[in-house]
Amino acid sequence: MAQRVKVGVIGCGFFAGDYLNAWNELAADGAELAAVCDVDRSRAQAAARNFGMASPNISIRWSCWSRPGSAWSISSPACTPIAISSA
């Protein structure tokens, strides 16, 4: 079996579904969808529920440090990735 790689998605808006589905489809190859976060708690909760995760978070810092992932997908408006990566 492939080595497990924990992954997370930052931003749970419209396009996040593409990232979430892609990571979910890679589960057989070792991807483990481990975390989602969004500034809108209801979107994060819906994504976590739809993809079988226990709890989402609205804090990027909390998500990245308390649920470290091996990889993170950033699904947010074009103006935000720099702010997210420096959070």
Explain the overall architecture.
The chain has helices spanning 16-25, 41-50, 60-66, 81-85, and strands at 5-10, 31-37, 71-74. It contains four helices and three strands. The protein has one domain (5-85): Rossmann fold (3-Layer(aba) Sandwich). The longest helix is centred in the N-terminal third of the chain and has 10 residues, at 16-25. With 87 residues, it is an alpha/beta fold. The mean pLDDT is 78.
Blueprint (SSEs and pairs):
Layout: E1 5-10, H1 16-25, E2 31-37, H2 41-50, H3 60-66, E3 71-74, H4 81-85
Parallel strand pairs: 1-2, 1-3
What are the salient characteristics of this protein?
Rossmann fold; 4 helices; 3 strands; three-stranded parallel sheet; 37% helix
Strand order of the largest sheet: 2-1-3
Mean pLDDT: 78
What is the ordering of alpha helices and beta strands?
A: EHEHHEH
What best-fitting shape do the alpha-carbon axes yield?
globular
How much strand?
Answer: 15-25%
* Cα-to-Cα separation, first versus last residue: 34 Å
Question: What is the name of the CATH architecture?
Answer: 3-Layer(aba) Sandwich
Quick recap:
By secondary structure, this protein is of the alpha/beta class. The protein has helices spanning 16-25, 41-50, 60-66, 81-85; strands spanning 5-10, 31-37, 71-74.
